[in-house]
Write a structure and sequence with these properties.
5-stranded parallel β-sheet; Rossmann fold; alpha/beta; PPAT
């Protein structure tokens, strides 16, 4: 499928940390829309976070550097404000479970009523549907192996934060890059 270069989607999230499920949604969005703005957000309803906002922006940029139509920007406010500021056509949200849809649908209706920007839901591929940033933080904090769940720049950052390599000890045929 060839995307229309006239469309731009906003993919908002805290991305703390950015993982392979997020990357999957970005790649699907590029295929569908052409241009994507990843809005790295600060969510005051979530814990203060593992990685500060500026570092998350840098990590996400490194993870999507192979996608020339993707831009990454920090947006500390609401996703709907980022959508207006970036003048996007759509907001994209990844869905892992039916519960994600229930939460996201309420937000989508509110965002549309405020901004007129529609939300498009993209299901994560089957192999990515179990991944969550909270799950990755918990495993990494306990020195577990997460490099098969996150892009290489994030694996390196997590290893630096927790003081141990986050190595993948599985056979190379089973690894997810």
């Amino acid at each position: 499928m060839v995307a229309s270069s006239a469309l731009t989607a906003l993919y908002p999230g805290s991305f703390d940390p950015f993982h392979n499920g997020h990357l999957d949604v970005v790649e699907q969005s590029v295929e569908l829309f052409g241009a994507v703005v990843i809005a790295v957000m600060h969510n005051p309803q979530k814990p203060s976070g593992l990685i500060d906002l500026d570092r998350r922006v840098d990590l996400v940029r490194a993870c999507v550097s192979h996608l020339p139509t993707v831009r990454v920007a920090a947006h500390p406010g609401l996703a709907v404000d980022a959508a207006r500021a970036e003048k996007v056509d759509f907001i994209v949200k990844g869905l892992r479970t039916p519960g994600d849809f229930e939460v996201e649908q309420q937000m989508a209706h509110t965002n549309y009523s405020v901004s007129g920007v529609r939300t498009v839901y993209l299901p994560c591929h089957h192999g990515q549907s179990f991944i969550s940033s909270r799950f990755i933080r918990d495993i990494a904090q306990h020195h577990g192996q997460v490099s098969h769940l996150v892009p290489a720049p994030v694996a390196t950052a997590l290893a630096g934060i927790f003081g141990e390599p986050v190595a993948d000890h599985r056979p190379s045929s089973e690894r997810n890059s």
